[in-house]
Write a structure and sequence with these properties.
232 residues; mainly alpha; 11 helices; flat
Length: 232
């Protein structure tokens, strides 16, 4: 393909992604009450008697609905976006590269989704711990926009960090690190994972930090085993 043909191809893929994101965003706007109720779940599990949101600005409701429409459009249309990106880069790849790319992309999607799911179920425990720190004299009524920002950030960080084993296996395959090197450095890896979990956990609570650190340590040793198998 010529440069002009590549630019046309990019424009077409981008147009398809933009249309799908917009349509899914409209659907998220329509189903806003259901999506908000779903996102409110961890809050209600932590404080079942008073899990209503408090707004202090007349524009908060509109802002929240726009946020959910945008985030919902991006999240639920992500399979189409990934597919369009894949269709764009596939023609320029060799057969061996395609052989490894499909399993790695699939694994990345699965691990990222697993991180998001874990974050959703642990977020209620994080809220409960944060409320207990303040004491019984405080009655919590959160601003929905601040709650949503913290919640989505937690899910994003958990999703990204759960890609850790996929990245390690990729580094092993290209020869940057070896399974033996990773095995010899397991003590330093555990220390690094623990510190990183404490730093990057948005809520700062020990429960979320522990839930993030333990799987990452497990993934570390799993990546060593997978790297050994793929090297044979």
């Amino acid at each position: 393909m010529t440069l002009v043909e590549h630019l046309k191809e990019i424009r077409y893929r981008f147009f398809v992604c933009a249309v799908v994101i917009a349509l899914v965003g409209v659907a998220a706007w329509i189903f806003y009450p259901h999506i908000l109720h779903f996102l409110q779940g961890p809050y209600c599990r932590a404080a079942p008697r008073h899990c209503t949101f408090l707004v202090t600005n007349p524009l908060d409701g509109l802002t929240l609905r726009f946020k959910i429409a945008i985030y919902g459009g991006l999240f639920f249309s992500s399979p189409v976006v990934f597919y369009q990106a894949w269709r764009f880069i596939t023609p320029g790849m060799k057969a061996k590269e395609r052989k490894y790319t499909i399993p790695f992309v699939s694994a990345a999607v699965v691990f990222f989704g697993a991180g998001v799911v874990v974050a959703y179920f642990i977020f209620g425990q994080a809220i409960q711990w944060l409320q207990s720190i303040g004491g019984n004299a405080l009655v919590s009524h959160y601003n929905p926009n601040q709650y949503l920002s913290l919640f989505l950030l937690t899910m994003l960080i958990f999703g990204i960090t759960f890609l850790f084993p996929v990245i390690l296996v990729a580094l092993e395959l290209v020869g940057i690190v070896t399974p033996i090197q990773l095995l010899h450095g397991w003590r330093y890896a555990i220390i690094f994972i623990t510190i990183a979990s404490a730093v990057f956990t948005p809520s700062g609570d020990p429960i979320s930090m522990l839930v993030l650190a333990v799987p990452l340590v497990t993934f570390y040793f799993m990546a060593i085993g997978v790297g050994k198998l793929l090297k044979k």
